[in-house]
Amino acid sequence: MSEQNSFLKAVRGLRPDKTPVWFMRQAGRSLPEYRRLRADKDMLTACTTPDLAAEITLQPVRRYGVDAAIFFSDIVTPLYLAGLEVEIVPGKGPVFADPILEPQDVDRLTSHQGFDPDCITEAAQIACGELGETPLIAFAAAPFTLASYLIGKTRSKNHLEARAFMHSYPDAWNRLARWCADMSAAFLAAQIAGGARTAQVFDSWVGDLSRADYQTYCWEHSRVVIDSAHAHGVPVIHFGVGAASLLDLMRDAGAECIGVDWRLPLGEAVKIIEHGPGDRFAVQGNIDPAILFASSQVRRDHVDQVLAEGKKAAAHIVNLGHGVPPNADPAVLQEIVDQVHESR
């Protein structure tokens, strides 16, 4: 695969002739072929069965002609493979049988060291064998987001339990966050070994943190994950939800491309991310998922505005500002792909 591929150029901050586009959660419940394939299979079975994970990874590439595939899995898959008892409950997400409630629980959990990566690497190999010139993106969670699923019996608004644990038990928190970083790094490594050419680190809940808390408790652990991908020779996209106040700190964690959600115009994000003249970063985003349900003309105008804002960055990868909603119409996503590919 040539480094002149439009996606691979853009992710490294080089503007290609054609703006690349793909969608977070492009493989998932919005696709009828996905729903048929998953009808009698639970999520973690699908994630750890190589031919199933590969097929789901490929589905949106076949349907839409997007410029990148993202490996189909779940952020807790490495923890499941490491032996933690977890269930992905529809409408709730991952639920662990033995969550962390006290500092000593961290030692119990972190005694699970490593996991067998073979099913992940095999799935990536199968997918890459079919993708041809379309690059595969490896994915993993940032440590704060992964740790947030492990702490507390219930998922509270703004992840209060995780934040309280962080402040109350900083030493235990740092051990947990470093363990999560190592798990996510190993998860990326397994996908890269199978042929992934880029990595994306998702920090879905980072927007609940203050700048001070992110710097004190999370930044160095996110850096571990990003550095691990760089050690394998691939560039990194770093994406957080509600993270407008943290974009410069996320940049400093080392990624080549910063994902931006729909709340902040890309031009404003570029001003935050770049230090000054000559400091040029790629950005990814940031179509508002709500626009998928608007009229065709409203949608086209919004996408044109996102494309115009993206020209203020060194390079731009078009995406939504969050994942594809389960009830999104695939025909609408196809229209967006076509519009982006026809743009100049």
Could you please describe the fold and organization of this structure?
With 344 residues, the protein is of the alpha/beta class. The protein has a single domain (21-279), classed as Alpha-Beta Barrel (TIM Barrel). The protein is 48% helix and 12% strand. It contains 15 helices and 9 strands. It has helices at 6-11, 32-37, 43-48, 50-64, 77-81, 103-110, 118-131, 143-150, 160-168, 170-193, 211-231, 247-252, 266-273, 296-310, 330-342, and strands at 69-70, 86-89, 93-96, 136-141, 198-203, 236-240, 257-259, 282-287, 315-320. The strands form 2 sheets. The protein has a 7-stranded parallel β-sheet with strand order 1-4-5-6-7-8-9. The protein has a two-stranded antiparallel ribbon with strand order 2-3. Strand 8 (282-287), helix 14 (296-310) and strand 9 form a beta-alpha-beta unit. Helix 6 (103-110) packs parallel to helix 10 (170-193). The chain is globular.
